[in-house]
Amino acid sequence: MTTTRSGPTLAVIGGGVIGGICALAAADAGWRVHVYDDGPTTRASEVAGGMLGTLGEGHPGEDDLFALSVESTALWPSWIERLGDAGIATAADSLFVATTAADGEYLRQMAQFVWAQQIPQDRLTPMRAAQIRAVEPALSTRVNSGFLASGEGALDNRRLLAALHAAHGEAGVHWHRMRIDDVADVRADQVLVAAGMGTPALLPDISLVPAKGEILRLHRNRYSVGVPQRVIRARVEGHNVYLVPRADGVVVGATQYEPFADDDRAPQAGGVADLLADATEIMPGLRTYDLAEAGAGIRPCSADALPIIERVDDRTLVAAGHGRNGIVLAPVTAARVVALLGA
Question: Boundaries of each FAD dependent oxidoreductase domain copy (predicted)?
């Protein structure tokens, strides 16, 4: 049942996960919301693994980002409930695994000096090779050590987008399939720009750096081994690969490098080859899966890796620069945007 509202109006430019969750949070807070979106082609959230954990995407020195991720991850269960689940959640835990002694030492260093500062010790369990294969038997015998991180789950990014869109309809959020080239052209009491890499064109004072990332979607067939029950985050001879469960298979990711141009969203053969090689090294049975999609997106990154969530002027707000952490940081972004709207 669609809700009719009579409060102030908010225009949200951008219909990805960030714009979508902010629009729904504002509608829940009593705003009349209109979303302006020019389609899925440029959305970073269309090409994503959907991990909700705080550990795998953080690096030493990013303490503020870690803390923000912890805060936001804690908000996700209520949002999943708000969206009616709809098969959004695909895993509850993550396995961090290593294939060499050097990889194992890297994980131990991260666990001792970085991860232990962010999550309680009882959520991080060291595991030997036999223990790892006991819970995920399809993993390679090359896996020699790792950690089980409970609560480091994942969502299906595309089901999440669909669920947000459905919730918008029920909450009275109006969608407009159109491109906005000037914030001044939008009629609303307040305007939120959440347009990813399209944000600087609308707000020239907002500086973002594009980072291209490739992912693969592999579908299980009748000859395939089962889908992992957990997110698998592997360290393979010094570099990283993740396998994220989906109802029909796994998402494999992800590369990250500077694109040739802002619209460079074609997956490159080298990136696809590297991902496939690392994924099948960790889970050999993936060789029997069907390669359903090779995709690439442009992540909008800020200079300090922290999202830009602020008021630009009396009428305009921005939520951008989430980089590789858009989905995990979506709830805390929505909370801050609603707070700014009320200020």
Answer: 10-339
